[in-house]
Amino acid sequence: KSLSRSSVRSRMSLKPPKAYNSLQKGALIWDPKPLQVKKIFEALKKGLNEYLEAHQAELDYLSGRHKDTKRNSRLAFYYDLDKQIRSVERYIRKLEFHISKVEELYEAYCIQCRLRDGATNMKQAFSLSPATKASRESLVELYKNVQECTEDMCFIEGALEVHLGEFHVKMKGLVGFARLCPGDQYEVFMRLGRQKWRLKGKIETDDSQTWDEEEKIFIPNLHEKFEIKVTELRGLATILVGVVTCDSINFFTTKPQAIIVDITELGTIKLRLEVLW
Fold first, then answer.
1. What is the domain range of residue 146?
2. Nearest to 169 by CA among 250, 245, 248, 275
3. How many C-beta neighbours within 10 Å does residue 255 have?
4. How many structural domains comprise the chain?
5. Which Pfam family is an annotated match for this chain, by its short name (predicted)?
6. 74, 81 in Cβ contact below 8 A?
7. Same domain, yes or no, for 183 and 129?
8. Tens-place pLDDT, residues 102-158
9. Is there a single domain that holds both residue 266 and residue 194?
């Protein structure tokens, strides 16, 4: 192989933290999903470039004010602007490194994916050929190559997941028109992989809503979607309102995303969330 397992891992010194239990050694997901990884990579790179453009625009604006202030000799304001400019420049360099690291990881992932596809195709070809000692030895070697490429792809997926940032999810309440009545109590349960958020809310007499929690931080996951379950609490009984899944592919953006999720099939009860990446 042109890029062996040892060389892949030696080039990527980052180790997944404890938040990524499913990606630690000994608990790897042995089912790479190249199409899903491609979608996440493209969304992630687009979002990072949006952040880069926004901070570059801020730097250009500050630099213009910096020149004007220098001419006017307002020293205190000048030095404050100079400090802001250096801070934005450092952040831009950090973003540029982040983007280059993500691109490096994805390039290595694509190489391993192509190597695995090639080894898989050759394995199928040899399995159809007459059984000889040479063909059996080739099949054993090809099987080993497929396994190693699969392992490398899983490892790179774990390393890439470390660079996905955080989703700050805010609870904005339920929308139900006539379905929501004063005194009604609801429980919302959200899951992303092993991460969970359970919160309870009540409809007040003035139609406002109170919830015991308002915000939760989720670590993005390459393989999992948000699972949302809403139940109505009636004394000791609970009534299931609905269970839905929500893809996070559109959350990788600089602006907070207002999300409205249909909890029931007819959309009579909706859940309003705000997601900031």
1. 34-162
2. 275
3. 9
4. 2
5. PL48
6. no
7. no
8. 999 999 999 999 999 999 988 888 777 777 887 788 888 888 999 999 999 999 999
9. yes
